[in-house]
Structures are given as C-alpha cells and as structure tokens.
Amino acid sequence: MIFSDRTALILKLLGVSALAGYPLVGSEFYIELVAKVLILAIFAMSLDLLVGFGGLVSLGHAAFFGIAAYTVALISPEYDPANLWLVLPASVLAAGLAALAIGLLVLRTKGIYFIMVTLAFTQMAFYLFHDTALGGGSDGIYLNFRPEPRVGEWMPFDLAEGHQLYYFILAALVAVYVLLGFVLRSPFGRVLVGIKSNEHRMRSMGYSTFHYKLGAFVLAGALAGLAGFLYAVLFGFVTPELLSWHESGHVLMMVILGGMGSPIGAMLGAGSMVALEEGFSLLTKHWQLLMGLVILAVVLFLPGGLIALPARLRGLFARGDHHD
Amino acid sequence: MDIFSFLVQTLNAVQYGLLLFLVASGLTLVFGIMGIINLAHGSFYMAGAYLAFGLTSATGNLLWAIVLGVPLAMAIGAALEALLFVHLYKRDHLEQVLLTYGLILIFEELRSILVGDDVHGVPMPDFLAGSIPLDDTLSYPVYRLAISVVCVGLAIGLYFLIQRTRLGMMIRAGSHDRDMVQSLGINIKLIYRVVFALGVVMAALGGMLAAPISSVAPNMGGQVLILSFVVVVVGGIGSVWGALIGALLIGFADTFGKVILPDFAGVMVYLVMAAVLLWRPEGLLGKG
What we know:
The complex is a heterodimer of chains A (324) and B (288).
Chain A: H1 5-25, H2 28-53, H3 62-75, H4 84-106, H5 111-131, E1 141-142, H6 162-185, H7 187-197, H8 199-204, H9 209-235, E2 237-238, H10 245-258, H11 263-283, H12 287-301, H13 309-317
Antiparallel strand pairs in A: 1-2
Helix pairs in contact in A: 1-6, 2-6, 2-9, 2-10, 2-11, 3-4, 3-9, 4-9, 6-9, 7-9, 10-11, 11-12
Chain B: H1 3-34, H2 41-59, H3 62-83, H4 93-115, E1 131-133, E2 139-141, H5 142-164, H6 166-176, H7 178-183, H8 188-210, H9 220-235, H10 240-260, H11 265-279
Antiparallel strand pairs in B: 1-2
Helix pairs in contact in B: 1-5, 1-8, 1-9, 1-10, 2-3, 2-4, 2-8, 2-9, 3-8, 5-6, 6-8, 9-10, 9-11, 10-11
C-alpha cells in the first residue's frame, strides 16, 4: 500500500463526492457515460474477485452479466413498470444460479482448461439467446419501463429520472465495494487468497478448496448479475452481444489494466478503458487497433496495472535499492 | 431421414470435423509443446481465408493461392513468434490470454483497413466444382470430399512428422524438458519457432480450404477459435489424437444437431463438451 489508511480513506471519500457531484455539472450524455463506467466498475470488481483473489482466470464472466440483463427484460411486464424489489433480486438470483450450475462444471478443471471451458460456456449461453426465440433472438429485447421501487403505494425514489438512476447505480457501486471489502477480510476471503497462492497447501490443511472456489464463483456471478441488471435498466435494451466472449475479454482487460487483486484497481480499469475507447473512437473508425496496441503495451510493459504505477514510478526515481 | 440424406449428413459431419481438427491441432500443438494459450489462433484461420480470397483473385486459381499462401503464412507465423510470442513463454496464462486478445483486435482492424468489411466468396478450382449424384435429387459436392481427403492426408503427415522424423523427436523432447534439450546442443528457440509457424500454417490452411464453402467475412475467426477450444478440451490438451477424436465428435454433434434440433443447434456442441467434462474433466485422451 503506498498510501496510509487515512490518506486512502480521504481519497476514497473524495472520489465518491466527485462522482456524487458530477450530475450537477455534467451534460446528459456524460452522466449516462459515467453511469455506464460505474456499472462496468461493478462488473470488473466482481471478476477481480475470481481473477485477482481466487486466481481463477475466467473468460466467461459476461454470461452472468447478460443472464441478469435478460432476466429483468423478460420478467418485466411489457406495458407496465415492474417492481424493483422483485426484479432486482430475481435477476441477481438468476445470475447466481447460472454461476452455480456452470461453476459446478468448470471448477472441475484447472489452469488453461478453466480458461477454455469458461469461454466455451459463455458461448453456449450466447447461442441460447442468439438462436432461440427466448429473448427475441439476435435482435435482442427491449425493457420498455424502468422498474419502480414501490413499497405498497409509496415510492421512495424514481429510476425513470436519469439523475436518480445515476445515484442508485453509485449507491450500488459503493455497496458492492463495501461488501467485497468485508468478504475479502473474512476467513472466506483469506482462504480464497490462500488457494490462489497454493491450492495444494490449503487442501492439505483441510480446506475443501472446491467449495470455496464455488462460493467465490457464485458470488462473483451474482455481482456481475447486479451489474447486468443495472445495465439493462440504464439502456433499456438487451442483446446477445452482452454475453459474447468479447465482453468477457473486455472486462478481463479492465481488471488487468487497473491492476488485479484490488477493487479500486478494477474501478480505475473500467474508467480508463471507457475513456480510452471514447477517446480513440473520436480519432479513428479503426480505434480497436489502438486499443489492441494499448493491451499489448500493458501486458509487455506494465505488469501490475495502473494501480501499481505510482509505486513503480517511485521505485524508478528512488535512490539506493530498487523495488519492482 | 432416408439412407442418402443420412449419408450426406455423415459426410458433412466428417468433413466439418476434419477441418476443425486441422485448426485445433495447431492450437493443441502450440499449447502442448510451448505452453502457450493463443486466442489469436482464430485470426490465423481468418487470415488464411482472406489470403485465399486475395491470392485467388490475383492468380485465378485456389490451388495457386494455397501454394503461395502456405509459405506466406509460415513467414507470418515465424515473424510473430520472433517479435511477440517469444516474450510469452515465461509469462503466466493470464498474460498470454490478454496479449493474444489484443492481437485479435489488431488483426480484425488490419483486415478492415486492408480488405474492408465486405463479405467475399472464393471460387473453387474447376476440376473440383462438380458433384456426385446419389439419387434423383441428392448429390454430394466433390470439393467437400476433397477437403476431407486433404485433411486426412495432413493428419497422417503430421503424425509422421512428430513420431517418425528427427525434427519430431526434437519437438517431443522439447515439450518434456526445454532446458535439457537445450543443453544437449539442440536449438530449442528454433524448434519453438518452427512449431509456432506450423501451428499458424495449419490454422491458415484450414481457412484457405474452407473459403470456397463458407463466405470470407469479418469476425470469422472467433467462432472457429471457440470450437477449436471445445475440440481441445474434449480431446485433451496437447494430444493430437485427442484433437482428432474431439473434432469428429464435435463435427457430428453440430451437423446432426442442426438436423434434429434446429433451434438448439448452436448449443448442442457445448452440451457434448459439458458431458465429456462431467465424465472426464481432463478430456478424452488427456493426462490427468
């Protein structure tokens, strides 16, 4: 850690305040863009739980994002808003259950097999929505009304209003961050990190590593589902491309760009990835080429991601012994 | 389904499976020997198809395109290994995944800049353009049979190369113990370069052969990449025989899936994979 605990806390509070204040000054377009970044930050943090803490490199994480997005679009009535307190848990639960079913299979494999198998199962989920009439096939499906947070007759806030949706998403991001901090400090989180560094040792210490990994896989799937739910609510439109393996690669890239093994890094990754994409797409129609070059550069020259950059720079300019 | 349409579907399944084997064997070879997971393998398939399109337009014949395209693909493979993949041997799988993911984006955009985003067709050579009549209505295209024959030939060639030649012996030794092979005075870096270039050639050749029967289109590599992964997972990583069995299994599952359950055709292949994983998580011929 390069900052003291107090500095880190102040920086976090400043970050949240800046995000909370943004709708007061930003234009509609950028408020929606920042809201998208916040959603992707939740998505990236959920994957970081697997990759950065559990050592499970999943190339299929978009499946859970997409399944939750499809769930809310499919169970919402066509001509009325749904009740948020029903569709939100239902979507997250659907993603969690899918993660349980897929996790039971993919966690039987390790290493490179795991990467390939997670990739293949996302593709299966993709074809399930792409080829069948279930969710409108390749055309996708609309979510005509944003869910209403009704409690009886009372409605504490209104997601149909853009700024309130923004704050709802920001609150979800903070909640996920706090939850992950809690999980990672718990015995469960410690065991997970132990599995990443040496699974054999953890098993010989008597931990059922399979169940810990499955727990992490389900939790990560459910949180990705929360992100997918918010995405569907924000944009009101769901297509099979949300589940495609390119999305899985995309979010994995965010985690690495920011620096894995750190929820803040995942958030930084999501923000810088979207910023790069927006910037590059202004420059040229072939912006993916620049994106690919950035990815190459990050892998070859920036191990540890953005979050490790201050420490690396400090190491570079420090006198005497050199930390890397 | 009568006997002739069954025959046609079976031949299609075999042809599709063998083509998948060609691409997947390159993937499994590069992984088994060099320990590299290469997501850009599908891009080499796409590059092969586009090479076939470009060179066929230039020379007028697919055969000439293949004759010219194979050395070109080999040169591209060797150059990529020397410039990029050589940095990946000591990196972990995650970094390999990311770097090769970045390469996919770069290759897709280069394709878009160089050739554009249109869908193209490639004519098959005249002497293979006919079809064999089976009954009054059904016939089977000669070109598809030719693909199967060529793929079987290549599979046999690959077997001889790896099991019966001096180069193959060095390749097999290199996959077991890189340092020991090097200390015996064998240039392991050169061996790796040859293996990688061979893998690229197999993917590209798959694309060239497939070009006349499937359209040459943007993003055509992604689908093949994932099916190759499925083949490798089903067959067992690093096992060329496993890749052959896996590829045929997937070929049959896909072809007959489309006939029997058209709505779930895309999912069928993955169900087969799930079943194999439940039964043998290390793949049919994998070493646990």
